[in-house]
Amino acid sequence: MNELFKEKVHVAFLGWEIERIVQPVIKMRATRLILICLPREEEGAWKYLLEIKRILEGEKITVDVIETSLYKMVSLLEILNKIFQVETRLGNEIYINVSAGTKITACASTIASMSTPGITAYYVRTKDYYPRNHMTFPQTLTKGIKEIFALPECQIDVPEGKYIKVLFAIERGEKELGGKVYLKTLIEDLKNMKVINVRPNSDPRKQASSEYMAMNKLLKQLQEWDYINISDKRRNKYITITRKGKDAVKMYLDYELDSKVIEKHHKQSIKEIIQLMDVPGELKLD
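Now predict its structure.
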């Protein structure tokens, strides 16, 4: 993307407050806010969302709304993973407000920013706090901004991409094959994904042996992390992915997005773009 047209994109979670979300966006001269909230029928703070949109749109700042649960850690990390990948591929600067929303969104946004290079997380310290049970709209949970400060950059190590690709292949294989993925099938899948890439050998048996060794090295590590289970059978061994492994795919999968393809969808909202990431052959890993 042309540096002259790079956007400053902020991500925040809806709470019972307005200034804590709006002021950093305006003060830091953002071009767009991605506001994540509960589904409208469940969101008690919807009036606050409308006021946030009114204020920011008055400042010519676009507000994209994504509706999801604010109480499911893995789902939140999955959404943030997708948002960060799309905006990063477009060359945009990404900031995330960890101070608004629920305690779980605060944890998720902090973990996500520490797991992804180039993301700036910040906290907004307010002047006054009010008891929630004494509030009526347009009164907010907090009032006034005392300070906005960035969190320190503390990188969290996540599994290498090759391990997440193996998990992705196993999970996809389970869906297509009815629950069991056999070693031979998995090897072919990983070769097509270029996860296994051993030196060619004219002897088919030696070639197959090299491929099995390369795959077993990957599987051994995934088993140690409790991401997969491997059957005890000596022949026709099969692999199943655990819940922990499925969560890892959601939180860490690199969708290998093509920025040119994403730019073709530039008129669509971030919500619509990340939905396309789950459609085979659109934006994501094949």
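The chain has a mean pLDDT of 89.
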